[in-house]
Structure formats: structure tokens, C-alpha cells
Amino acid sequence: MTDPACTRVLLVDGSQLITEGLRISLHRTHCFRVVGIAHTVADAARSLRGTPVDLVVTDFDVPGAGPLRTVRDTAQYRPGAPVVVLSNADSPSWARAALDAGAVAYLLKTSPVAELLPLIAAAVRGAPATIDARVGSLARLPSRMPPPASLGRLSAREFDVLAEMAKGMDNARIAQRLFISNDTVKTHVKAILRKLGARDRAHAVAMVLGESSEAFVTT
């Protein structure tokens, strides 16, 4: 018999393999009960409107809209329900964006389930914001990011490129690190500048990291 005191969880991820694995793992833990699974932003919004939930566990970039849309939808439809973001990217920029959008934790999908479950449980108990220890240092990131609407226009790959730009990488090195062509990097950079309303690369990075533009100009 299902315990009504269990935490009701909505799982949101484009991969059925991921959601099914999480569902099985959470059902083995007495304090969790998965009440909904969504594979797109639209599905997640419908579930949030129609199903009472106590916790949302979502991918960073769910198919159907910009990154973190489900985090903001949760705040609208289920205020007070904590959101844990799972991601494949150990990106400080992504982590900060997730927390600024309202998530209570940014965890890596590559973490063992035995490590993830206690962190998810801690989020339900109201623990301080949590970022996976393997994510790069956040020392250079400010307490505030641009408004979520601005960041939400960036695709997941554009976030990748922006994070590399913040490390001082030029186009050639970004292409090498992300396994894409130089022309593709240039296309992403142009899109980032346009979506953020930035004058140039340094300005875009300064907008996100809150530092002076000169600190990020690559020599």
C-alpha cells in the first residue's frame, strides 16, 4: 500500500531511459513516490497543472523550450515545490543559471544513485542550495545572473560555448573542446551576442559573470 506521506515526485527528462532508471531507484526508497513522468516541456507543464507534486527532478534542457523552462513552470504552477536539476554538463555557468532560475540543486547524471538519492532527499528537507562537487569552481560567478528570460533564450549548446568563452577560450579551442567546427562556433557566438544583446564576446561574458570585460579578453 502506498504511503500518503511519501514525497510525490515529477520526473522530467527527454530520455525515457533516464526517467525509468530514476523511477525505479526512487520507488526503492520509501520516502519517494513518482506520480508523473514527462519527456517534453509541454508534458511537464500539463503534469504540474494537473498533478500535486512535492518535488520536481528535471533535466537542464528538456525538449520543447529553452533551458530551465520547467524550473520556472514549477514556480508558477507548484510554488514551494523544490526543483532538482540533473545534467550531464559539469559547467559552472549552467549550475549558476539553474540556481538563479529557482532550482535548489544542480547534480550530475553521472553520479552513482547512492550519492544522488541523499542529495535529492536533502533538497526536500530544505537543505541549502547544492551543486555537485565535480562542477568547476564557482568562485568567479556572481550571486546574480542576467534575468532568466535572457538566459532562457540560449540553447544548451550555446550555454556550452558561453561557458568556454568565460574560460578565455578562442574559437579554435572551443571547437576542439566541444568537437564542433570553427564555423559552428562562430554561428553560436553570433546567436549568443544577439540573444543577450551583447556588443561583443567580452561583453557577453561580463554580463554573465559580472566581471570587467577586459578580464576575459583572450590574448
Helix content: 40-55%
What's the gyration radius in Å?
A: 18 Å
Shape: elongated
User: What percentage of amino acids are in beta strands?
Assistant: 5-15%
Order of strands across the main sheet: 2-1-3-4-5-6
Number of beta-strand segments: 6
H and E order: EHEHEHEHEHEHHHHH
Unreliable segments (pLDDT under 50, ≥5 consecutive)? 137-148, 211-219
Structural class: alpha/beta
Count of discrete alpha- or pi-helical segments spanning 4 or more residues: 10
Gap between N and C termini:
64 Å
- In round numbers, the mean pLDDT is 80
Largest sheet: 6 strands, parallel
Characterise the protein shown here.
With 219 residues, this protein is of the alpha/beta class. Helix content is 46%, strand content 13%. The protein is built from 10 helices and 6 strands; from the N terminus they run βαβαβαβαβαβααααα. The protein has helices at 16-27, 41-50, 69-77, 92-101, 113-124, 148-152, 156-166, 171-178, 182-196, 201-209, and strands at residues 7-12, 32-38, 55-59, 83-87, 105-108, 130-131. The protein has a 6-stranded parallel sheet with strand order 2-1-3-4-5-6, with helices on both faces. β4 (83-87), α4 and β5 (105-108) form a beta-alpha-beta unit. α2 runs parallel beside α3 (69-77) and α8 (171-178) crosses α9 (182-196). The chain is elongated and about 50 Å long.
